[in-house]
Amino acid sequence: AQTMEMMYGVIARELKAMNIEDAHLQDYLNFYCLGNREEPSTDGSPESDKSTDKSAAGLARKHRRFMIYVHAKGMIVDDEYVILGSANINQRSLAGSRDTEIAMGAYQPHHAWSSKKGHPHGQVYGYRNSLWAEHLGMVDDHFKEPSSLDCVRLVNQIAEENWERFASEEMKTLQGHLLRYPVKVEPDGKIVPLPDQECFPDVGGKICGAPTSLPDSLTM
What we know:
By secondary structure, the protein is of the alpha+beta class. The protein contains six helices and eight strands; from the N terminus they run H-E-H-E-E-E-H-E-H-H-H-E-E-E.
């Protein structure tokens, strides 16, 4: 949560400096996660929601909800450039002299902002829209301009509804797999847990993180 607070704090200070009062920090920066809920089986197999297993795995089976873990790292920049790989997108992993990682970057010279004099609609654009369709469970004209406020607020609305469905004790199917990262962002950028949601459902783990005994020098 500290990294998120740092980033939101920068935006909050800039909005204040520009006297912009009607904007929300999440109009500019958002964090999401991926999850899934599976409908109960209709083939006559035993219903998992009758399980009495109180372990994390047992609770996940009972509620039929699971976080989706993706080890790959990816970044799409302005529908023009894409980077994909196992490497974290930072200096340590990409420098080539420290971690043993691999990643690739790609763009199409004829589908760049500089050559098109406008929004590029090449394969990177197509890949991003395909990914969004999977994550959000729909295709919408707003997705053509991802930086627009209308698009940002639509995506946030879907992600918010998906988190509420994911966290509900009642079985509710998600629209796609994109969930809001379940924290509240205060106007000054401070990050706090949502009411009664300090830990992730079933599997546990503090949503806002917890202190570690490891010294910073081991994780830098």
